């Protein structure tokens, strides 16, 4: 697999997001998740991403049971489970969460530790100072920020260098191209793209509106409720036809497009099973292919917001 820079290390250009191990898209089990991790490593994936709230610790526990020490591992803290949803960036809480994550992951060091959401009441310079202490103490290799504005990145980076910024980015979520991806490039910060396959909409086959109520969060996500859901399926259909015509796998083409947007971008698609990993080999896109994909799926084509209002509360908006 192609390698890309993430902090001081080279990692596979495509990582694995393990949110689904916690059951947010539907039931899963430890045996299936461990098999998925093994298959991902066998395919050259070396960067694995989790968070303390994915299944309220379940995803981290599975990675701890897996026990691979030769991987690059990222986890996150800051979101306090609700309702109502809250965010904390104070040093005591960050330290408490880090120790809890280390126990679940069965490690004494995290390669990359993200602040999952920023707490506006705490200056980002103070937050960066806390993370710098954790780096100096050897608890973490570097720190990251998620769903922030370019101005926040620059302020934090000036206090202590940021390793990575993580935000949603895909063919149907382009906001980071309006300044954040460029700011990361300018500062030498990796941009980690989560949900690069549009939460399954750019997967192997068109989704059906059969999400499990109360389990699969897409059941109430604006882009997956009617009439948006049907409109989005229709909008993506020509892209699927293009992939079939060119002999590309849909997921591979979508990941190829993300990778082509910058050599500092690392997408982290997620899956509950090893079966989907074979679809992720990036399609060999040239400049003409990129132009054609952008014509079929132009910026802003998606119907509906990417999150409900309650989930947007601590996401920084800058455009």
From TrEMBL:
Gene3D superfamilies: NADP-dependent oxidoreductase domain (3.20.20.100). Keywords: Oxidoreductase. It comes from the Bacteria. It comes from Paracoccus broussonetiae. This is Aldo/keto reductase. SUPFAM superfamilies: NAD(P)-linked oxidoreductase (SSF51430). Residues 13-295 form the NADP-dependent oxidoreductase domain. The keyword NAD does not apply. It holds the Pfam family Aldo_ket_red.
């Amino acid at each position: 697999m192609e390698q890309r820079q993430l902090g001081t290390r080279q990692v596979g250009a495509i990582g694995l997001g393990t949110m689904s191990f916690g059951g947010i898209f539907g039931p899963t089990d430890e045996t299936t998740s461990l098999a998925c991790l093994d298959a991902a490593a066998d395919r050259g994936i070396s960067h694995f991403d989790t968070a303390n709230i994915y299944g309220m610790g379940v995803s981290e526990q599975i990675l701890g049971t897996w026990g691979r020490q030769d991987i690059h591992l990222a986890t996150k803290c800051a979101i306090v489970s609700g309702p109502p949803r809250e965010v904390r960036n104070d040093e005591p809480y960050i330290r408490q969460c880090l120790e809890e994550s280390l126990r679940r992951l069965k490690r004494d060091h995290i390669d990359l530790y993200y602040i999952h959401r920023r707490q506006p009441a705490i200056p980002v310079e103070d937050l960066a100072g806390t993370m710098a202490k954790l780096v100096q103490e050897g608890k973490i290799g570097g720190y990251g920020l998620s769903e922030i504005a370019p101005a926040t990145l620059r302020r934090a980076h000036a206090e202590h260098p940021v390793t990575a910024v993580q935000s949603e980015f895909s063919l149907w979520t382009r906001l980071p191209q309006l300044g954040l991806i460029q700011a990361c490039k300018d500062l030498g910060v990796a941009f980690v793209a989560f949900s690069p396959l549009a939460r399954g909409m750019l997967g192997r086959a068109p989704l059906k509106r059969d999400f499990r109520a109360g389990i699969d969060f897409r059941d109430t996500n604006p882009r997956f409720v009617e009439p948006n859901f049907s409109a989005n399926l229709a909008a993506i259909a020509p892209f699927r036809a293009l992939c079939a015509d060119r002999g590309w796998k849909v997921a591979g083409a979508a990941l190829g497009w993300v990778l082509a947007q910058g050599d500092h971008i690392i997408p982290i698609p997620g899956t509950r099973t090893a079966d989907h990993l074979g679809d992720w080999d990036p399609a060999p896109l040239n400049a003409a292919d990129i132009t054609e994909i952008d014509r079929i799926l132009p910026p802003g084509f998606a119907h509906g917001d990417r999150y409900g209002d309650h989930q947007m509360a601590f996401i920084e908006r800058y455009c």
